[in-house]
Amino acid sequence: MKFKFQAVTTAVAFMALSSAFAAVPIIEAESDDARQSQSQSAATATPASRNVTTELVFQINALQNEVRQLRGQIEQNDYRIKQITERQRELYLDLDRRIQALSGEAPASGQSGSSVAGSAQGDEERAAYNDAFSLLRERKLVEAKASLGNFLERYPNGELASNAHYWLGQILYNEKNLEGAQDHFSSVVNNYADAPKAPDALYKLGLVWEAKGNNAEARKTYESLMSKYPDASAAQQAKARLTTLN
Fold first, then answer.
1. Within 10 A of 239 (CB to CB), how many other CB atoms are there?
2. What are the Cα distances from residue 48, in Å, to 40, 41, 42, 54, 216?
3. Which of 42, 117, 133, 136 is 20 to 30 A from 100 in CA distance terms?
4. How many CB atoms lie within 10 A of CB 224?
């Protein structure tokens, strides 16, 4: 009986041991399959990751190029704004200098020609002009523009019409009304060639052409000024402007 029990025990132990050894390869085989599957997954994911990285690099480069372009545009705009601001400052300074230099022009001296000095009409014209010019000296440009316009309506052929045309053209030029300024400066040049304001009006016509972007006409105007009025101070200004034209 004892012998049979020992045999049975031995057989059971042997079977358990055999089962244990038999299970080991199965477990190892499952681990190999899992590792192979993971390797395949990694191999499959690698190209996609590379594509994403390449796309991101491309987008970053594109954004950097756009930023550089925007910076260039901003620098160009800043430069243009500075030029416009400086030009506007020069225009107003020029207007101030001319008004101060010609302050002695008002009250206007009598220019009666063959008429009797101190005639009623002459006095009215000079008074109207002096009123308009006083507004200009006080930098009341809106009021001065209206007053000069009224003066020209009342005295279109008056002795002081050339002055009124010139100053009205100057105000419109400062307001960037190039067409209006051109009309008044041209009126002085064409109708009052011997007037004191004629050289300055011709010079301002050159500036108008420059502002319009027509350097060829500006050059012709400056050269005409230097030829017609070589001794005028405006001729020296025209000579300086010629050196800046392309």
1. 14
2. 14, 11, 10, 10, 62
3. 117
4. 15
- Give the Cα separation of 234 and 101 in Å (integer): 14
* pTM across the whole model: 0.56
Comparing CA positions, the residue from 178, 152, 150 lying closest to residue 163 is 152
* Tokens matching residue 80: 């243009």
Whether the ω angle into residue 156 lies within 30 degrees of 0, i.e. cis, is: no
**Residue of 208, 209, 153 lying closest to 181 (CA atoms):** 208
Structural contact between residues 106 and 151, judged by C-beta atoms closer than 8 angstroms: no
CATH number for region 116-242? 1.25.40.10
| 8 Å CB contact between 132 and 148 | yes
Give residue 216's identity as a one-letter amino acid code.
Answer: A
Please report which helix (H) or strand (E) contains residue 17, including its range.
helix 2-101
Provide Rg for the chain, Cα atoms: 47
User: Residue ranges of the chain with pLDDT lower than 50?
Assistant: 1-14, 16-31, 34, 42-43, 103-118
Q: Report CA 28 to chain centroid distance, whole Å.
A: 76
> Tokens 């987008």 map to which residue?
59
Q: What is the pLDDT of residue 69?
A: 74
Task: Write down the pLDDT at residue 186.
Answer: 96
